[in-house]
Amino acid sequence: MDSIVVRRLKKSYGRTLPPAVDLQEPFSVRQGELFGIIGPDGAGKTTLFRLLTTLVSPDEGTATVEGLDIVRDYRQLRTITGYMPGRFSLYPDLSVKENLTFFASVFGTDIKTNYHLIGDIYCRLEPFEDRKAGNLSGGMKQKLALCCTLIHSPRVLFLDEPTTGVDPSSRREFWETLARLKDTGMTIVVSTAYMDEADRCDRVAMMKSGRFLVTDSPAAIRGDFGRQLLAVRSDEMFRLLQDLRKMPQVDRCYTFGDTHHVVLNDGCKSAPEGIGRILEEEYGHKGVSVRVQPATLEDCYMNVGG
Amino acid sequence: MKGFFAFVRKEFLHIFRDRRTLLVLIGLPTMLIVLFGFAISTEIRNVNIGVCAPDKDVSIARLVDKIDRSEYFTFKGWYGSAMDVDRAMKKGEIDAALVFSEDFSSSLMSAEGAEISVVTDAVNPNNASMEVMYLTNIVYGYFFSDTDSMRQSPLVPNLRMLYNPQLRSSYNFVPGIMGLILLLVCALMTSVSIVREKETGTMEVLLVSPVKPIGIVFAKMIPYFVISCMVLVITLLLTIFVLKVPVEGSFFWMILVSLLYIILSLGIGLLVSSLVKTQIIATLIIGMVFLVPVMMMSGMLYPIESMPYVFQLIAQVIPAKWYIEAIRKIMIEGVPFVFVLKEVGVLLGMTVVIFTAAVLKFNDRIE
After folding, report:
1. Residue B8 touches partner A, C-beta closer than 8 Å
2. Which ranges in chain A are annotated with CATH 3.30.70.100?
3. Is the pLDDT of residue B166 over 80?
4. Residue A67, SS3 per DSSP
5. Is residue B196 less than 8 Å (CB to CB) from chain A?
């Protein structure tokens, strides 16, 4: 069964500005699905979250969450969704425990009732229960925010860049928690800037200028890359990048870890060895290594929609 | 309801965590009362006075002695001529002078009568007119009572200052300060605390909760209502026991009118918070649109009747004007409640209008 159904959704913040969200194709998120949204800053991710959590109303189109219309039934909808905005939005002058107690009572419940949902995150925070939320580290803040969002056992969870500014091990823990929550049947929509995180989602939507460009499982998106991708290294990485961009066979070239990823033009059939030879002979690079690279999600992200 | 009380509890926690602000809120009325009650006053005290009397005699000396003994004036010295008086005034030795005509005492008996000029430094017109008034009073008093031979004048003005016989400025300021502080605590603090939630993004999270948004803001009003009541009590205690301004009228009605004004101010705070997005703008609006007019145009410092017509009209829509008037009537004049029905009616009407506007304008989305 579908948890979130969007037929068409449009929202702009000013007459002169292009719409922040302009979804023309219908899309839906299944119940218990972990749905990721990736896209550059300003793609409209936050606005989409605000639309689905009834914080802003759409200019055109409608959507339902758990069968409830985001415009008409917004009151009811607010009782069953959990929303964690991108920036830290708890009370810095209240202690960890006070924050959690407050959000629990706002939703008409208490910490004990839903402790099972937050237990494995909150146990990490328990030593700091009396510390002011403002004095927590970035990762701790996010954990606390997630606890406060989960405390009323929402059926649909919206997380807007929850791991931005969080250290890798905390990120890993965070995603393990999400996986556990997903297993309880909770629908989770999460936006992220990290591609390794997007890989953990059931399906991923790539968003740009308010639209979904691709919506599919990470594996399918990778499989659909459909272009020749090479990973190139040499002793002079910076000059290599400039030289590669000059080559007629190369469509795009960007750094990727300690290599440069090169997307070849569609018609170009030259093998990795060919490119390597040109670099050595025409551009005088030393220590050149060129190999065929299977596309990662980041490559798809970099190349989608130009 | 449980959610609502959680909110109220949270608001109190915010206030108690922010000790400094709380201290300011409680300290402010004390400071203003002391300032306006003692330091800033329109009464005159210890004005330096010089006297020019070409024919000094006992009667003039006694008059000067009487003036010097009053707490309002300090006798600085005798001057030979009007020129000397002028010079002394320019040098700043004296602020006022009495100039007696020649042959003063003997002319008193004559048909033409004698003459005294009262000269004052009118750079500050308020002070100058006060000095003239006080001096004239002392001189009149001296010649009509102290020298009983002078009872020939047919017209003796009988001046009575009602409700404030000692002409103490605290009688005038106290209602004004109450109007000012209550507005400051209620409107400013409420709007800033609501807007802060918008600014920090917590409003987003709160809106996506089942608590009705209007409950969120009403929960914010309760702590400030309590603080305002405390401020009201402090102000009244200071007024009665430190400034010794008596409450002539009904205590009950005075408190009730104040509570109405507190609620009205809370409404103003709510309205402002629903219109703006940042704390700094909320502060500016409350400061510029509400506090300054309260100081200038509510009749606290300057009488409304002497303002240009346009400003008189503007003054009519300032809530503090009506509150100050009502409190003056009840507290200082001690009139029964029926005489302040108009003021209370206006305040009540304003409260209804402002709350309606605030609730209508309140958005339970973040657009």
Report:
1. no
2. 229-303
3. no
4. coil
5. no
**CA angle, corner A252, sides to A247 and A258, nearest 5?**
95
Q: Which residues of B touch A157 (CB under 8 A)?
A: none
Question: What pLDDT digit, counting tens, does each position of B99-129 carry?
Answer: 888 887 777 777 777 788 888 888 877 788 8
Please, what CATH class does the domain formed by A2-223 belong to? alpha beta
* The two three-digit tokens of residue B336, written as one number: 């029964």
Fold annotation for B47-150: abc type-2 transporter like fold (3.40.1710)
Q: Is the pLDDT of residue B158 over 60?
A: yes
Dihedral of CA B333/B334/B338/B344: which sign?
Answer: positive
Complex ipTM value: 0.79
Mutate to test the interface with A, among B1, B5, B204, B366 (most CBs of A within 10 A): B204
Considering only the beta carbons, identify the residue of B13, B207, B210 that sits closest to A94.
Answer: B13
- Please report, for chain B, the start and end positions of each structural domain, with discontinuous segments joined by +: 2-40+168-361, 47-150
CATH no., domain A229-303: 3.30.70.100
Q: In this complex, do B6 and A89 lie within 8 Å of one another by their Cβ atoms?
A: no
Query: Is the CB of B1 inside 8 Å of chain A's CB atoms?
Result: no
Comparing CB atoms, the residue among B201, B204, B208 nearest residue A81 is: B208
Residue pair B126/B42 in contact by the 8 Å Cβ criterion: yes
Q: What is the pLDDT of residues A233-252, one digit of tens each?
A: 888 888 888 888 888 888 88
Measured between alpha carbons, how far is A127 from B106 in angstroms, rounded to an integer? 98
